[in-house]
């Protein structure tokens, strides 16, 4: 059964920590012959997502365009040596379990990539991929943003424990912003638009940006200029 069918939004920490362990084990695999991901493609996709969402929600176009420019101006250092084998679309619905046994399916998009890309994707798409989280995140009577973020942290804790090291929070924030923009696009393109979930994601994007700009982020202009990656 897909893991999504058994996730109780209020009691899912242990399961999601185990998902983090599984994901880290995938990133540790040695798999030859897969394509290599390019950060320029990621930024190009962000631009497409922003254009698509802005077309349907023009009132938010300026905010989203500013976020796109922000991502381009703050590209983290690219180090191909740090790339790992990646699933390509790792999320809870790709994880199956039965009688204590676990499997991961759908490796069609497998590649060598920055693992932070997939970590951010997994954290972001909990509220899209897991029906109960999607329901709560869109509930006007209950703001489940903190609940979904706590679930994402549980997954991240499992990943970090398995890796025996902490992730770089600033690098993860950068990818989270791009992934949340992707989430907005997915809501519209898959006919799952909900105004409550949309507005909460916009607020979350603003919060993530502020966290990235908080003390500890690189404010060196030369660093930003040298790591700026043009869109094709």
Description:
- The protein has 232 residues and is mainly alpha-helical.
- It has a single domain (3-226), classed as Aminoglycoside phosphotransferase (APH), C-terminal lobe (Aminoglycoside 3'-phosphotransferase, Chain: A, domain 2), CATH 3.90.1200.10.
- It is 57% helix and 6% strand.
- The protein is built from ten helices and four strands.
- Strands 1-4 form a two-stranded antiparallel ribbon.
- Helix 2 packs antiparallel against helix 3 (61-73).
- The chain is globular and about 50 Å long.
- The N and C termini lie far apart (41 Å).
* Main structural class: mainly alpha
General shape: globular
Give the low-confidence spans: 217-232
Note the run of SSEs as H and E.
HHHEEEEHHHHHHH
Q: Strands of the biggest beta sheet: in what spatial order?
A: 1-4
Mean pLDDT: 91
**Under CATH, the topology is which?**
Aminoglycoside 3'-phosphotransferase, Chain: A, domain 2
CATH class: Alpha Beta
- State the separation between the terminal residues, measured CA to CA: 41 Å
**CATH architecture, please?**
Alpha-Beta Complex
Main beta-sheet annotation:
2 strands, antiparallel
Seen as an oligomer or otherwise, the chain set is single chain
Radius of gyration: 17 Å
Beta-strand content estimate: 5-15%
- Counting DSSP E segments of at least 2 residues, the number of strands comes to 4
Number of domains: 1
Q: How many helices?
A: 10
């Amino acid at each position: 059964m897909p893991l999504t069918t058994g996730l109780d939004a209020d009691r899912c920490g242990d399961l999601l920590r185990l998902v983090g362990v599984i994901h880290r084990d995938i990133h540790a695999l040695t798999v030859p012959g897969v394509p290599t991901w390019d950060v320029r493609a990621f930024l190009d996709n962000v631009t497409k997502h922003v254009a698509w969402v802005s077309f349907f929600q023009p009132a938010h176009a300026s905010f989203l365009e500013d976020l796109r420019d922000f991502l381009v101006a703050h590209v983290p250092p690219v180090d191909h040596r740090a790339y790992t084998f990646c699933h390509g679309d790792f999320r809870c619905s790709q994880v199956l379990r039965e009688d204590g046994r676990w499997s991961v399916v759908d490796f069609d998009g497998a590649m060598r990539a920055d693992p932070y890309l997939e970590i951010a994707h997994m954290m972001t798409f909990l509220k899209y991929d897991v029906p109960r989280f999607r329901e709560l995140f869109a509930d006007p009577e209950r703001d489940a943003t903190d609940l979904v973020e706590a679930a994402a942290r549980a997954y991240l804790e499992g990943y970090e424990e398995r890796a025996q090291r902490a992730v770089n929070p600033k690098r993860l924030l950068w990818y989270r912003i791009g992934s949340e923009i992707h989430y907005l696009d997915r809501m519209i393109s898959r006919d799952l638009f909900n105004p409550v979930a949309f507005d909460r994601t916009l607020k979350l994007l603003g919060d993530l940006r502020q966290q990235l700009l908080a003390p500890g982020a690189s404010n060196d202009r030369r660093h930003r200029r040298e790591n700026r990656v043009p869109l094709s």
